[in-house]
Each structure stands twice: as structure tokens, then as C-alpha cells.
């Protein structure tokens, strides 16, 4: 493994690879800092670029954007009290308080350092865990795969933000969209309504671009995302040895916590940063100072969200099952390039996997090296008004969709997905479950049908094989989480009602 | 209200698509055919759609009390949406190279750009950048339009 990793790392330094990696780092840091552009959207609008490149540079570009945008959302969170990406929500609590105290430079330094260390720790666990998980998954047959994807989809509905019912509806819609077109086993057309363009299925890239990017533009163009007259560009101050010593426990714990939260499907870096902030503020010695502008309050969410971003890549590479919405889009990029991630990927395309991992290591290191000089540029970029960004994103959406299959039907699908996505987000539907359902739809159906063919139509095959039974039991157990949440809410409501009468 | 509308659409959609599964040709020998999976999904979708409808009706009173604080700018929303829809036929007939600067210009205007110089420069620079990046550098073929528009596009990519 070590040799593979070294050769993968060396491969990163091929000119085209390193150019794409640094382009990704630059776009990720710059784009992620702009409020209103999430890391997912950045990856989505770069899909057409990835389509025009070879697989390795394309995936290096997208993963570098993904990694660095998680960090850069903290810049506007600290300087302007506006998280650049959702992952930086928790960074606002103490980051902006530090800015108000005149410690913006220190807060940025802590954010950069914690993000890079969190990302590197996450990367190390990624290197260690991916091959183990992949070799374990080699024992998997169709029933186990079905159970695993079922578990992933249930968890993303339960924990993906929003209500469980809405999450499940999202998953089911995603799975249904994946059934449109000619059935891969029997060749029979399903839900095509005699439209020739639908026989080859609905392109998931079109749906993803519509749901995420176009819907977001329709929403954001109505808001004022113009950072007016905010010219703050403080000098970044990296933490000294004393401060590092003080933060090492917070960074270490949050990175570990973040990584394992990130591995769970659908529970991405945003949840990791919030959970980690709340854990640190509950258990730290100076817990009462959290929220008043202390470095620990920046270090905890920043190390957790970057580590979680790495965690989300583990199931993607080892099992072919993405851990978050952004990694689902990256899975789409893999498939677009004719690569199917899964347990055999490391064995068959070890160079590709380890080059990507090497790229991730380097991207995390780049955060330390490049962020400092970039922060001065941010003060200009952050002033870019949405009336420039919005129209350009629209054009990127069209190019991205059209590039994949040169199909006008795909453009229609993308626009419909945009309108649907806009309405669903307005109704507080989480989009990640739908994306995961869509991306994993063909896979789960294939394994479901294969498993039933093996058993001769007997559904007990899913419950009699140990791994599959355990995974399904976990899925059904996780269904209890909304019940617990509902029960807790009822008790709280009863308490609230009881209080005034006392 | 939006939730009620969405849940009704979901229920109707699941019923309609379930009905449509009967038109899918299935060979009699196929026990696990192409219909079983979509039907399982549609039945589940109906159940969850119905649950959402019940939940939404139950919460209707609460929702009407807590009025949504979201801003809705009709001009920007409908302006963007209509232009986005019209961009599809524009790409087909006018072609990418001519339609794009026009659309960026109108979109930017609707979004709030009012200064003349940026209104002229943004569409030109924007189109130049995306044309250079995608059709020229990455060789991604974009629609050329018809007639004279098609001929014009050959000057650029």
C-alpha cells in the first residue's frame, strides 16, 4: 500500500495533474469564500470542465475544489459574519466575535491551521480505512450491496437535515428518476411515454445541475448577496507554539469526531462542524467562554468539517457509495469518465485512487501555503455582486448539462429539475437524499433483482445472510431515530405547557 | 400550503405512474421483471406522500400563524425563470455564441446591474471566457444555431 501511495503521490506531480490540482485549490478557496456559492455548486458547475479532461486530472480538479471550499467558507464567516459555505456556519459563533475584538488575523490563522490539520488527519484515516473497507466489501454479494445501499439511503433520510418523511420522499423520487429509460436487464422501456430522448434514461448530471445550481440561482438572485463596503483584509496570523499547545486537544478530538461523522452517508461536514462545536463547548475547561470569541470555537468546527470532508470520500472510494451530496456529484464525475468506484477500484485502478488521495493530501497542505496570500484577494472577490455571478452560473449550468450528451432533452430536464428543486428547498425538502437516490438508483435495483434471482424470488435472502441481515437491522433501527426525536419533542412541549401553570 | 400542494402532486404522480407500470411489457417467464422495483417505489412514495399530506394538514394552523419571512422578488424570479426557459430554443435557433451575450446582458439587467459599461463588458467578457474554455480549449461542442447563425459560429469554434 505504501508503495502505491508513493507512486500515486509522485503521479500528482505530473505537469497537467499539478496544474489541475492547483487550479482546483484556487477555485475552491476563492469560490467557497463567496457567500451564496457552496462547494457542491462549485463542483457541479465544474463538471463540464471535468468532462473535457482525462479522468485523473478531472478528478484531481473536483476533489481539490471540494476539499478547499470546505475551508474557505470560514473566511467570510470570520470577516463578515456570513458563512461562505454551509459548512462554516459554526465558525461564525466565535470567528466573528474574534473579529469584533480586533483579532480577525488570529481567527483566520487558527481557521487555516485547524482546517489543514483536520484535513490531513482525515486524509490519514482515509488512507488507512479505505483499503480495509474495500477488502471487507470484497466479500459482499448482491444481498449485502442492496442492504448497504438501503442503509445509506435510510440514514441520509433520517440524518440528512429536514424531516424524515421529506427525506424519504426525496430518496424515492431519486430512485424513480433512475428507473426511467430502457431497463438494463430486459431492454423494456419504462416511463418513457414514447419520447425517444428518454429511452436512454434521464441523465443524472442534468438533474443534479438543475436541483443544486439552477434552483440556487433562482433563490439567491432574489437576495442581496452583495458584500457592500466591507474592505477588511486583515493580516493573517498563524498560531504560535503556545496557542498550538492550547488547541491541540480541540483540533485532535474534533478531527476524529468529524471524520467518523463524515463517513456516515448524508451526514456531511456541516453536521460534523456543528456537532463538534457543541461537543467542544460542552466538555472544554473553558466551556463558558465559547461564543465570546475564543480560538477553540474556531478550531473545533474548522478541523471537524475538513476532516468530515475526507471521511465522506471513504465510502465513495471503497464501496462506490457517496457519503454526502458533493461526493455524490463526484461519483457522477467518476461514472461520466467510465469509472465505477467500489471495492475493486483500488485493486484495478490503484494508481488512480492513490493519485486522488495524494492530491487530497497536497490540497490540504496547500490550504496552509496559499490561503495567506489569497486572503487579500478575497476582499475584492467578496465584493463580486450576484448580478455578475448569477447569470454566469446559469450559462455554466447549460454548458455543463449539454456537454455530457449534446442533448436538448437534457436541458429541458435540467430546467424542470431547477424549478422542482427551487420549490422543494422552499418547502424545506433536503436535496441530498434525492441526489443519493438518483445516483445509487440503478445500483440498488440491479442488486435487488440479482439477489432475488439468486434466491429464486425468496425475500428471506436479505435476512438470512449475516452481513446483509446486520445492515438491514441497522437500517430499521435508524428508523427509530425520528420516533425518538418526535417523542422528545412531545415531552419538551408538554413541559413547556406545564411550566406557565406552575 | 406549499407542503400540501407538493404532497398532493406526489400522491397523484405515484398513482399515475403506478397505473403506467401496467403498460410496461413484461415477459411471462420473468419473475423478477422490470416492473416489481418501480411498483415497490411507487407504493412507498404514495405512503410517504399521504403521510406528508396528513402532517401538513395537521400543521396547517401553525404554519399560517408563523408567516414565512422569505423575500420573494417576482420580477427577478420570473424574469430569470422565463429567460432560462427561452435560452433552450435560443440555443437551438440562434446558437450559443450569439445567444449567450444577449442572455447574460438581460439576466444581469434583471438581477440589478444598471451601469452601462459593466452591462456591455460583462456579456462580452463572460461569453469570451466560456467560449474559450469550453468549445475552444476543451472541445465541448455547443449548439451552433441555424442558417447564418451557424456560419457565424464557425468563426469562433
Automatic annotation (TrEMBL), chain A:
One Pfam family here: TctA
TM ranges: 16-47, 59-80, 107-133, 145-178, 198-218, 256-277, 312-339, 351-372, 384-404, 411-429, 467-487
Top-rank lineage group of the source organism: Bacteria
Keywords, ordered alphabetically: Membrane, Transmembrane, Transmembrane helix
UniProt keyword Membrane present: yes
Domain DUF112: 18-436
UniProt-listed InterPro entries: DUF112_TM
Keyword Nucleotide-binding: no
Name recorded for this polypeptide: Tricarboxylic transport membrane protein
TrEMBL record, chain B:
Coiled coil: none
TM spans (from-to): 39-58, 78-111, 117-140
Pfam families: TctB (PF07331)
UniProt KW keywords: Membrane, Transmembrane, Transmembrane helix
Domain DUF1468 stretches: 6-143
Domain of life: Bacteria
InterPro entries tied to this protein: DUF1468 (IPR009936)
Protein's recorded name: DUF1468 domain-containing protein
Amino acid at each position: 500500500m505504501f508503495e502505491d501511495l508513493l507512486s500515486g503521490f509522485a503521479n500528482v506531480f505530473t505537469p497537467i495533474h499539478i496544474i489541475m490540482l492547483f487550479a482546483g485549490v484556487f477555485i475552491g478557496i476563492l469560490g467557497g469564500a463567496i457567500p451564496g456559492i457552496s462547494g457542491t455548486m462549485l463542483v457541479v458547475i465544474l463538471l463540464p470542465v471535468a468532462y473535457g479532461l482525462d479522468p485523473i486530472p478531472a478528478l484531481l480538479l473536483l476533489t481539490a475544489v471540494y476539499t478547499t471550499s470546505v475551508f474557505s467558507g470560514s473566511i467570510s464567516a470570520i470577516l463578515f459574519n456570513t458563512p461562505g459555505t454551509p459548512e462554516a456556519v459554526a465558525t461564525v459563533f466565535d470567528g466573528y466575535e474574534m473579529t469584533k475584538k480586533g483579532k480577525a488575523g488570529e481567527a483566520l490563522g487558527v481557521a487555516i491551521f485547524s482546517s489543514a490539520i483536520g484535513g490531513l488527519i482525515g486524509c490519514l484515516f482515509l488512507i488507512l480505512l479505505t483499503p480495509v473497507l474495500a477488502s471487507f466489501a470484497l466479500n459482499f454479494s448482491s444481498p449485502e450491496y442492496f442492504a448497504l445501499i438501503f442503509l445509506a439511503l435510510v440514514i441520509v433520510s433520517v440524518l440528512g437535515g429536514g424531516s424524515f418523511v421529506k427525506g424519504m420522499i426525496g430518496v424515492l423520487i431519486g430512485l424513480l428518476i433512475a428507473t426511467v429509460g430502457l431497463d438494463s436487464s430486459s431492454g423494456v422501456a419504462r416511463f418513457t411515454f414514447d419520447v425517444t430522448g428518454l429511452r436512454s434514461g434521464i441523465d443524472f448530471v442534468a438533474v443534479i445541475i438543475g436541483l443544486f445550481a439552477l434552483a440556487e440561482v433562482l433563490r439567491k438572485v432574489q437576495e442581496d448577496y452583495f458584500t457592500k463596503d466591507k474592505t477588511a483584509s486583515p493580516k493573517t496570523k498563524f498560531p504560535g507554539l503556545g496557542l498550538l499547545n492550547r488547541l491541540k486537544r480541540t483540533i485532535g478530538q474534533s478531527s476524529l469526531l468529524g471524520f467518523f461523522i463524515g463517513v456516515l452517508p448524508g451526514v456531511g461536514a456541516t453536521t460534523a462542524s456543528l456537532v463538534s462545536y457543541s461537543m467542544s463547548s460542552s466538555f472544554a475547561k473553558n466551556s463558558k467562554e465559547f461564543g465570546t470569541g475564543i480560538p477553540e470555537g474556531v478550531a473545533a468546527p474548522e478541523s471537524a468539517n475538513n476532516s468530515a470532508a475526507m471521511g465522506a470520500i471513504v465510502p465513495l472510494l471503497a464501496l462506490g457509495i457517496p457519503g454526502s451530496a458533493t461526493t455524490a456529484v463526484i461519483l457522477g464525475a467518476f461514472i461520466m469518465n467510465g469509472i465505477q468506484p467500489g471495492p475493486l477500484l483500488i485493486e484495478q485502478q490503484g494508481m488512480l485512487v492513490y493519485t486522488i488521495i495524494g492530491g487530497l493530501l497536497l490540497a490540504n497542505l496547500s490550504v496552509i501555503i496559499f490561503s495567506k496570500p489569497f486572503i487579500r484577494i478575497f476582499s475584492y472577490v467578496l465584493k463580486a455582486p450576484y448580478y455578475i455571478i448569477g447569470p454566469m452560473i446559469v450559462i455554466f449550468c447549460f454548458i455543463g448539462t449539454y456537454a455530457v450528451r449534446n442533448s436538448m432533452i437534457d436541458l429541458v430536464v435540467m430546467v424542470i429539475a431547477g424549478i422542482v428543486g427551487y420549490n422543494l428547498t422552499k418547502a424545506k425538502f433536503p436535496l441530498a437524499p434525492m441526489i443519493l437516490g438518483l445516483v445509487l438508483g440503478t445500483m440498488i435495483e440491479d442488486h435487488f433483482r440479482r439477489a432475488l434471482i439468486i434466491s429464486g424470488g425468496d425475500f428471506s435472502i436479505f435476512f438470512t445472510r449475516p452481513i446483509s441481515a446486520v445492515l438491514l437491522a441497522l437500517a430499521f433501527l435508524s428508523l427509530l431515530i425520528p420516533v425518538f426525536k418526535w417523542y422528545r419533542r412531545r415531552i419538551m412541549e408538554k413541559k413547556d405547557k406545564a411550566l406557565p401553570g406552575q | 400550503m406549499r407542503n400540501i400542494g407538493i404532497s398532493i402532486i406526489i400522491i397523484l404522480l405515484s398513482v399515475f405512474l403506478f397505473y403506467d407500470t401496467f403498460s410496461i411489457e413484461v415477459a411471462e417467464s420473468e419473475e423478477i421483471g422490470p416492473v416489481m422495483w418501480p411498483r415497490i417505489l411507487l407504493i412507498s412514495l404514495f405512503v410517504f406522500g399521504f403521510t406528508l399530506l396528513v402532517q401538513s394538514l395537521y400543521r396547517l394552523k401553525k404554519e399560517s400563524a408563523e408567516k414565512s419571512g422569505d423575500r420573494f422578488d417576482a420580477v427577478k424570479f420570473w424574469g430569470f425563470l422565463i429567460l432560462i426557459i427561452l435560452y433552450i430554443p435560443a440555443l437551438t435557433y440562434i446558437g450559443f455564441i450569439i445567444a449567450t451575450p444577449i442572455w447574460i446582458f438581460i439576466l444581469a439587467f434583471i438581477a440589478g446591474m444598471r451601469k452601462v459599461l459593466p452591462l456591455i463588458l460583462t456579456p462580452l467578457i463572460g461569453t469570451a471566457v466560456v467560449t474559450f474554455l469550453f468549445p475552444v480549449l476543451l472541445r465541448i461542442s455547443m449548439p451552433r444555431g441555424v442558417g447564418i447563425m451557424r456560419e457565424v459560429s464557425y468563426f469562433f469554434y
